[in-house]
Structure formats: C-alpha cells, structure tokens
Design goal:
Elements lengths: L5 H13 L10 E6 L2 E7 L9 H4 L3 E10 L2 E10 L5 H7 L3 H4 L3 E6 L3 H8 L5 E6 L5 H11 L2 E4 L10 H4 L2
Parallel strand pairs: 5-6, 6-7
Antiparallel strand pairs: 1-2, 1-5, 3-4
Length: 169
C-alpha cells in the first residue's frame, strides 16, 4: 500500500474532525497545519454547553443576495442555520494568531463568504478544501485572489474508508 501524500493525510484529519459535528445538514471539519505540524482541529456545531441542532432543531434563516446571472441582476434566496458555528470559525477561536501566521487550513468544504473573510484576515497563506460550496464560490475565489492566498480544491481526493455515511448528507 502506498504512503499517503501530505494533502491526503491532512484532509483525512479534517474529515475525522467533521465526525464530531452534530449538524443534520452537513458535517464540516478543518485542521490547521504549519509545515507538516498539526496545530489545531475544529468542526461545526453549537456553542459549548448549548443544545445543538440534533437536540433543539436547526435555526434556519433566509437571506437574499443580489447576483449577476447571465448578465442580469437577480435576487437569490439562501438558507442557513444560525445555531451552528462554522468549523473555520471554531478553528480561529481555538488557535493562536501566531500559530496561524504562514499556515495552511485544510477544510472539508469550501468556505462560505463569512468564513472566507475571516480566514483572509487570520494570517493563513493557503486554504485547501475538498467539497465545493457553489453558493459563494465565485466571490470567495475572487477574494482569495485579491488577498494573494493559495486557494485550491483537492482534486481526486477520496474519503477515508468507513467515513462516508457519517459526513455526507
């Protein structure tokens, strides 16, 4: 059996972190790495000590965003849960700025707009994700380009054996 490359190794860890999530909609995990050293892990969920979505239900809000679709402006409706703190946000809450400087974040899912903004100011220099998030994809990519951050989808990645049913909804 071939040894896993570093990208696969750290994305596997992000997926393992996601198994701690109690989110019914999507389990997301992330890890912070500097060089080959793991500095932190996090997953999405309610604040500590507060009932999560599996116990209290999702808190879904609807938002509207003006987007360009085929050259025309359209209002697009988006739904999101506001009970859950995103994995990237938890990672930033529980790691030190000094550790983030020059580091790489591996995240199971492409960051949303809010998380992308936070990561852009966090000191990390690279964000590697597996699953796309089409709702915010274009504007997030533009932000990362403007900030000069390496932002890449891990192509050809396969989930670790036995984890598929736990994280895909």
């Amino acid at each position: 059996m071939a040894r896993k490359d570093w990208d696969t190794y750290f994305m596997d860890m992000a997926y393992m972190a996601s198994t701690r999530s109690q989110c019914n909609r999507r389990k997301v995990g992330t890890v912070l790495v500097q060089g080959k050293k793991l500095l932190g892990t996090a997953y999405n969920g309610a604040p500590m000590g507060v009932p999560d979505c599996s116990e209290a239900g999702c808190m879904i809000v609807e938002e509207y965003e003006l987007k360009q679709v085929e050259g025309k402006e359209q209002m697009v409706k988006k739904q999101r849960c506001v009970r859950t703190i995103h994995a990237e946000q938890n990672l930033l809450l529980f790691t030190d700025r000094g550790d983030r400087e020059g580091s790489t974040v591996y995240v199971t899912d492409q960051p949303c707009w809010t998380c992308a903004n936070m990561l852009a100011n966090s000191g990390v220099v690279e964000i590697v994700f597996h699953r796309p998030y089409p709702k915010d994809s274009e504007k997030v990519r533009k932000l990362m380009e403007m900030k000069g951050l390496v932002f890449r989808q891990l192509e050809g990645y396969e989930l670790p054996a036995g984890i598929l049913d736990d994280v895909i909804h």
